[in-house]
Amino acid sequence: MTTDTTTRGAAPGASAPGEAVLDARGVTMRFGGLTAVRNVDLTVNSGEIVGLIGPNGAGKTTFFNCLTGLYVPTEGEVRYKGAVLPPKSFKVTAAGIARTFQNIRLFANMTVLENVLVGRHTRTKEGLWSALLRGPGFHRAEAASRARAMELLRFVGLDGKAEHLARNLPYGEQRKLEIARALASEPGLLLLDEPTAGMNPQETRATEELVFAIRDQGIAVLVIEHDMRFIFNLCDRVAVLVQGEKLVEGDSATVQGDERVVAAYLGEPFENAPGAEEVAEVEAAEAHADTPQDAAPGKENDR
């Protein structure tokens, strides 16, 4: 297992209050002649929880993939703390952006602790020779890495199950473990893709409290979610994507009161809205573009 070089603390990747952590400008993603995301701007500041909502097929996950290096945007750019992000997912993770996925992607046959230790790979420096020689420096770093992983498991309430296999955890706890693994990379921005999907109300409430606790550590959060009560209780701002375009952005009251948002969720057409045939073509193109890859953190593909 790799070794830790980050000093322990509440949130080593946290930013100064009010700092723009994420700045996405004009992000467009085309699959051949089909446009799944069109000219989307979005900013997330430190200390904020921002929601991204929209009907099925709106382009939310495609936009997430553009932010995290799984897709290279056809047009536009994504900046993290002012620097343009490299078009590689593992480099995006190393820069300070971590994410979870709509479908849980844990290492099922590894322990809970081992899953979190894998998430430390972008914050390690011990090379091959150090690992092979296993000198005192290696052992000290390995111990520090395990201590930080246990700290994160305590944070999400899983420290008592550190030696359990990930596959044996209940569904809600697997979601918590995936969040702990993402936090292991010490991000300044955490992206959550439908974190409450499949959860009961009690689990959803626990997830809400966990996200607030993450925010309180200075980590900005961007979340996709279909549970509107969850998203409006949680978020400082909400952006709505419809057919790949940002329809509106604002606080919960602004978004809930927008007639175009209501129409979009009811399936009613609005001015210049594409037809169902075009929407189906975009969804098919997105599905075709996704190819299964290794499930290692920072190297996954989505869906």
Keywords:
single chain; 303 residues; alpha/beta; Rossmann fold; 2 domains; six-stranded mixed beta sheet; four-stranded antiparallel beta sheet; 11 helices; 10 strands; 20% strand; globular; BCA_ABC_TP_C
In words, what does this structure look like?
With 303 residues, this protein is α/β, with parallel strands linked by helices. The protein has two domains: 18-96 and 190-289, P-loop containing nucleotide triphosphate hydrolases (Rossmann fold); 106-186, no CATH class. It contains eleven helices and ten strands. The chain has helices spanning 60-67, 89-95, 112-118, 128-133, 136-156, 171-183, 201-216, 228-234, 252-256, 259-266, 276-289, and strands at 20-31, 34-45, 49-53, 75-80, 83-84, 97-99, 189-193, 220-224, 237-242, 245-250. The strands form two sheets. The chain has a six-stranded mixed sheet with strand order 6-7-8-3-9-10, with helices on both faces. Strands 2-1-4-5 form a four-stranded antiparallel sheet, with helices on one face. A hairpin with a 2-residue loop joins strand 9 and strand 10. Helix 3 (112-118) packs parallel to helix 6. The longest helix has 21 residues, at 136-156. The protein is globular.
